[in-house]
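4.2 Preliminary Data

To establish feasibility before requesting continued support, the project team ran the inverse folding procedure on a target of 393 residues. The structure was first converted into the token representation described in Section 3, and no sequence information of any kind was made available to the design step. The complete token record follows.
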């Protein structure tokens, strides 16, 4: 993976990390109220979901680099509006632009990096490196975001730092990232919109490994949401020191890195075990969520949380390797965006389910539900593999 692409990927996750610790508070300081906060965040999520697949098609038809440039410009515009916003209407527009920026980013630079992988070993290394860079950037960015929260007013320090990182990322993308122009492709080889849409949408209907990936992508979105949403109030019930919230989050990102490196090491030596390794780590992730549900003290809680992210990081690399092994290069950005869309569907299902389960049984029951879904689906696909010898690896 080229150094310039690695730097762009790192800057992207750093920018996200700088904002993530204060996003809710930032929205409240720039026009939202407690009553309208969910509407603002919902507008962001809805925009991401609506634009995911069209933005991926745009990247495939007009270029992954151009898609990423558009993404960066949209994000810069969004945070410029955040900076000056004092009304809900302007804040809402900023959220929509930020959602569009997120959608145009998904699958673009990643697809460009993966297209350079010339063999199975290179594919594993690229997918692992992307996962590691994301985790490192989010971890460092989150720590920096906590420090920046005290600078300026209304979290202007975080906003300006994010804008500076995105502007730097945009400059690197413009001047160091190169992609063959679509005009250099022979007219008869250029993708047609109708055929492109049919082929991309048809991809997710494939049986075997692709259908398995569809199911686990939705389940992953569900599980990630219920952990990310409720781990802080659960930890707060043990009356920790304030600094522990940042430390536990940092431990989680570190565990993702370790899991990613282990899977990279394993798959470079035994690439034929990709599906088996993914299923094993999904089951272990489910088991760690069960342990999280059972935890009765801060130590066991943090240990279960870290184990969950260890297996999340490892299974994500195996999952990405399988997906990119199956995805045709000409539709790669569209397919990656489609799977990002499926992840968001899992998040949406979790948010809807969360209201009813939390009201009836408490939020910890969501961890038990996610654990059961992951373990049950893993068992089902393990049995399916055993009785279907033609199932792809």
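Position-by-position output of the design step:
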């Amino acid at each position: 993976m080229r150094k310039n692409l690695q730097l762009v990927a790192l800057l992207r996750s750093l920018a996200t990390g700088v904002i993530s610790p204060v996003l809710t508070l930032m929205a409240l300081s720039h026009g939202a109220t407690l009553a309208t906060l969910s509407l603002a965040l919902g507008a962001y999520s809805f925009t991401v979901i609506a634009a995911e697949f069209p933005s991926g098609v745009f990247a495939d038809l007009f270029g992954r680099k151009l898609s990423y440039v558009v993404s960066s410009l949209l994000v810069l515009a969004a945070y410029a509006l955040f900076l000056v916003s004092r009304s809900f209407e302007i804040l809402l527009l900023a959220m929509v632009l930020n959602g569009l920026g997120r959608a145009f980013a998904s699958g673009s630079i990643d697809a460009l990096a993966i297209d350079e992988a010339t063999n199975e070993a290179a594919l594993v290394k690229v997918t692992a490196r992307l996962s590691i860079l994301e985790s490192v950037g989010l971890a460092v960015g989150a720590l920096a975001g906590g420090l920046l929260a005290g600078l300026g007013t209304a979290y202007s320090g975080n906003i300006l730092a994010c804008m500076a990182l995105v502007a730097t990322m945009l400059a690197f993308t413009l001047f160091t990232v190169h992609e063959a122009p679509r005009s250099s492709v022979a007219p008869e080889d250029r993708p047609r919109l109708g055929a492109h849409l049919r082929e991309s949408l048809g991809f997710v209907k494939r049986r075997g490994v692709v259908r398995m990936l569809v199911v686990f992508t939705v389940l992953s979105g569900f599980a990630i949401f219920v952990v990310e949403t409720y781990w802080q109030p659960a930890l707060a019930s043990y009356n920790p020191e304030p600094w522990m919230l940042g430390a536990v989050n940092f431990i989680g990102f570190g565990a993702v890195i370790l899991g990613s490196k282990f899977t990279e090491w394993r798959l470079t030596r035994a690439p034929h075990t990709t599906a088996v390794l993914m299923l094993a780590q999904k089951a272990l992730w489910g088991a760690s969520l069960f342990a999280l549900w059972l935890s009765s003290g801060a130590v066991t809680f943090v240990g279960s949380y870290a184990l969950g992210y260890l297996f999340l990081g490892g299974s994500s690399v195996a999952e990405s390797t399988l997906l990119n092994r199956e995805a045709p290069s000409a539709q790669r950005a569209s397919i990656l965006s489609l799977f990002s869309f499926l992840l968001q569907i899992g998040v949406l299902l979790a948010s809807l389910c969360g209201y009813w389960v939390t009201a009836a049984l408490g939020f910890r029951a969501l961890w038990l539900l996610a654990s059961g879904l992951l373990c049950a689906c893993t068992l089902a696909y393990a049995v399916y593999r055993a009785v279907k010898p033609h199932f792809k690896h």
